[in-house]
Amino acid sequence: MAEGVETDTQFDLLRQQGCTQAQGYLFSPPHPVAEVETMLSKARARVVAWDSSSPVSSSPVSSSFAQSEVRAAERHCRAEA
Q1: What pLDDT was estimated at residue 29?
Q2: Rounded Cα distance, 9 and 7, in Å
Q3: 36 shares its domain with 48
Q4: What is the 3-state secondary structure (H, E, C) of the chain?
Q5: 79 and 47: one domain?
Q6: Using one digit for the tens of pLDDT, what is the confidence trace for 4-61?
Q7: What do you get for the CA distance between the two ends of the chain, in Å?
């Protein structure tokens, strides 16, 4: 996980080096834990709604990746609290 990514140039360089996860001001400024928890709850609701209504939800590529990302972010928030 690359931290402190602030420019498109930095992000492009990281992707060229094989980095698949990054965070920083390029994506979002820091938010209070309570605000992040609300954002995650809304994201989880969207993933569940999409998964249950999507005609491709039975395909091998579904929202399981998005769900795992939400769970990982939730664990990180709990660890930071």
Answers
A1: 87
A2: 5
A3: yes
A4: CECCCCCHHHHHHHHHCCCCCECCCCCCCCCCHHHHHHHHHHHHHHHHHHHHHCCCCCCCCCCHHHHHHHHHHHHHHHHHC
A5: yes
A6: 999 999 999 999 999 888 889 998 888 888 888 888 888 887 776 665 555 544 444 4
A7: 20
Do 38 and 72 sit in the same domain of this protein?
yes
Range of the domain at 6: 1-30
pTM: 0.46
Q: Is 32 exposed, middle or buried (CB count within 10 Å of its CB: 0-12, 13-18, 19+)?
A: exposed
33-48 as b/e: b if 16+ CB within 10 A:
eeebbeebeebbeebe
Per-residue tokens: 77: 């928030």
